[in-house]
């Protein structure tokens, strides 16, 4: 915490960092499972299964993706310096992610409407490859961001290929596997019969892959920047940070336990693997936060250095304080409206 | 080598122009369509007449596809400012960022959230709540236009800010920022343009189906299948009740009047196509002239705040009293004159200053480094917009005359004209966008921050690569989407449009009107403990 700041200038960036972190986390959790559906497409050969899987997220994906706009728009409004440095630094992966999301978003609408087998196959591929590419590029962007961004003055100073490193490829693959796990667990919850069993069978390897990725990334992180090592591996920090890996271990154990007990009978038991998988994402996210805090452009700017003037932050905060609870309420209402299992009978046409 | 390659700045400008023009095609259509759907549903609830519900369902499918393309192309826009215009974002972010954040908070979530309810059908939530969902989506599109045009207007006519020594703009007065001088005019002109765009498309679809049906009748008649000559259906507007045959007589045997309302008379041309065409022609008759007035007000406002833009629009190089209105010409920046002029004396002074002798500043009295960078583009785009606007007014008047004479639905030349005018709104809106944006060059924040100083420090090959990718992906994906929209337009609007058969899974779903979840009354094998 900066000692030379007080009052609004101290607190507003804290509140806003929390809100933007929340928006990004909500995005990762919510769009994560619907991107996961696309990632799992190669493992679902039957057209009927694919239709059910897509229909299970069709009512909500648009709202899920809006959190990505919220993250970007919020960053521009309250941390414009971070927005202006990070986006050019991650130019290629972000543009590729956006293009992949274009493919995938339109494929939602078109794969049901295309006439003939070839057209449908084409849009299925657009959906699947779009989802995978979007997830992979998000992971790459995350890895490149964590590794640090070269800054001179108030602008990005690196090249246009800086984002491509072995570590960013690792985080890219990790996020594809992780979203795949979320997608499988979502299907396990929302479907029944053969597709449910298929989802349960897929959830296991994807979860194992996710756990391996979490371990690998956590092992590499301390060596990326000295600040990370200090945060995690020195006394007394280690005691404050230790609960996170411990909780991860507990969640992993409960997750595989829940998976083993899966019956497909419906009810809360079917939701358990999904909720625990979300828990793993939240914990990994908290772990990242512990490493990065309080940097918003590692290693150059803190949240206070990148913050917009208090007048900007206050103005949006008034609206956010009123509107975010309202948004969460009606988003919850829409999820509630579309509750229950999705079946082949509800397939298109 | 540099001489052959466009600079990163030019590429970034072209990229922004490309993605924003593509993007705005969709909201220009869906802003009006959302309101049209709300009006149709309200009329259905009020009158109980099936024709309104059928027409609603016909356009709802189309809305879903167009809206999906608007969403994904809009997502790209929210990142363009950072990827390609990072200096602008860093400096003006504290002012325009909050306006865009309000757009997300008030509009995007509202639209995305309630679109699912709107598409998923009345059966699940009931009529009242469904009407509310439609109204909320329509309201969302308006909020969206409000905030993004406020941010855009601020870049044209910045107000309510302080400029720090490091080049950053910081907010001083939010009211002055939001309601900056050009905002009310730009908002009114743009939203009205969007309404006209929708009216022209709806009208064209209605007209095309009326024409096709007429053709079919004539062919049947020629083949001797219809013995009576074309009855013509003079003046039978379904907006005027009582002209059709008694509804009860038209009901199919055994079908009691349902909650859908009494069966609509199917006599005469397709009543849904008539409804579309009739409503669109009313809209053009009333709103196209209003748009001309709004355009004039917006132009006068621009004349006060961005005289260089107006000089480029008019092709004026000399400052004159009693300035002429140049109908046609070729502005030549090098020679500093507009060649091959066809002009009406004094007219420009009249509509810009509202006096025959008012002084209109020409480009020569404006520093050269404040001139719009592409004068012919601004000049010709303006003429395209105004020309199409005049055609819209004419079409609206023709529609009014034909309605008065009772021949609105069977005047082939007018139906053909209305069909051809279908894309006119989209073209006019795009042309208007080009006028205002090319006309405010070479600045991003007018008079304060130059476009050349706003661009991201990204290498030209990176911008070129991404631009090529945008071009390929947009043409493939949105090309397929638009082709599909055209196919939807071709489908004849039928009675019981899009109603799910009884005891069948209901329609649903976010952006897709795909059935996905079982009906509320039968939530499937839910909690089975």
Automatic annotation (TrEMBL), chain A:
Highest taxon, organism lineage: Bacteria
Pfam family, one: Cyt_bd_oxida_II
Membrane topology: Multi-pass membrane protein
Keywords in alphabetical order: Cell membrane, Membrane, Transmembrane, Transmembrane helix
Membrane spanning stretches: 15-44, 89-107, 127-149, 169-189, 201-221, 233-253, 274-296, 316-338
Major subcellular location class: membrane
InterPro entries the UniProt entry points to: Cyt-d_oxidase_su2
Intracellular or extracellular location(s): Cell membrane
Family of the protein in this entry: Belongs to the cytochrome ubiquinol oxidase subunit 2 family.
NCBIfam families: cydB
Protein's UniProt name: Cytochrome d ubiquinol oxidase subunit II
Lineage, uppermost ranks: Bacteria, Pseudomonadati, Pseudomonadota, Alphaproteobacteria, Acetobacterales
TrEMBL record, chain B:
Membrane topology qualifier: Multi-pass membrane protein
Stretches for region Disordered: 219-270, 494-529
Keywords: Cell membrane, Electron transport, Heme, Iron, Membrane, Metal-binding, Transmembrane, Transmembrane helix, Transport
TM region positions: 20-46, 58-79, 99-122, 129-149, 192-211, 275-294, 377-401, 413-435, 455-486
Subcellular location field: Cell inner membrane; Cell membrane
One protein family per Pfam: Cyt_bd_oxida_I
Top-level division of the source organism's lineage: Bacteria
Family: Belongs to the cytochrome ubiquinol oxidase subunit 1 family.
Protein name in UniProt: Cytochrome ubiquinol oxidase subunit I
Annotated organism of origin: Roseomonas populi
